[in-house]
Amino acid sequence: MGYMKITSPANLRIKDALKVRDRQARARQDSFVIEGKHLIGTALASGAAIHEVFFTGSFSREKEGREMLNLLSSKTSMLWEVADNILARLSETSTPQGIVAVVTYTSPQLHELYFRKTPLVVVVDGIQDPGNLGTIIRTSDAAGADAVILLEGTCDARLPKVIRATAGSIFHLPVVRTDADTLMRFLAEKKIRLATTSARTGTSVFLADLREPVALVFGNEARGVRRQIEEAADLSVQIPIYGRAESLNVATSVAICLYEAVRQRAPGNS
């Protein structure tokens, strides 16, 4: 495995990587920075394009580190050993894991989505918290959802905090951005029911029929689902609250609704 060393934080490669990371924090783009063995390993396994890799000398001396670098060397020739202080500049975490990569991963367009026999889709309508969005993507992946669709006003899935919160699931399932009108036409064409979620109104999620193709819509943390979608929905569901809590975190709500759909669809349930 061949690589070169970078000793100066003023090196053009470092400056370019920092620009990608800074743009990543402000705007949607296909290239973004990821860090750590787990996330980079997931990106590798998913077929994401690996452009550049920056790692510390101590990382390259670890057995797992050498193995990962050998794999990465088959994907890119841009492998750079950097000093710890330079890696710390590239990292978004307080305890860098010794390796950072610039990758590209492009999700399909809405019309390119592939659904299984009984689609289960998560629609995110205006959620702003990156941790919530990342957890929703991770939960959707765990529950076997077909896709996560982001509507206008939702924070970007390429934000560093979102990517970390997905724990690699950003590379496992399609995360598509579209507008509400296009989404509703698309779901109608595919004969997928539109189900909104609400904190106070609608059928209990444990009584609603989620066995048929369905897209579950989860709204903004404060405002909920937009009126346009509420009025077009085929079904409204809520999660009963039996204690004194005023509401549930939106990512928790997604987990409950998705796993209720999974439970209903399990063999033997009716």
Task: Please supply descriptive tags for the structure shown above.
Alpha/beta knot; 60s Ribosomal Protein L30, Chain: A; elongated; 270 residues; five-stranded mixed sheet; alpha/beta
Could you walk me through the main structural features you see in this protein, from its secondary elements to its overall organization?
36% of the residues are buried. The protein is an alpha/beta fold and 270 residues long. Strand 7, helix 7 (160-166) and strand 8 (175-177) form a beta-alpha-beta unit. The model has no long low-confidence stretch (mean pLDDT 91). Helix 6 packs parallel to helix 7 and helix 6 packs parallel to helix 10. The longest helix is centred in the C-terminal third of the chain and has 16 residues, at 250-265. The strands form two sheets. Strands 8-7-6-11-9-12-10 form a seven-stranded parallel beta sheet. The chain folds into two domains: 4-104, 2-Layer Sandwich (60s Ribosomal Protein L30, Chain: A); 110-265, 3-Layer(aba) Sandwich (Alpha/beta knot), CATH 3.40.1280. The protein has ten helices and twelve strands.
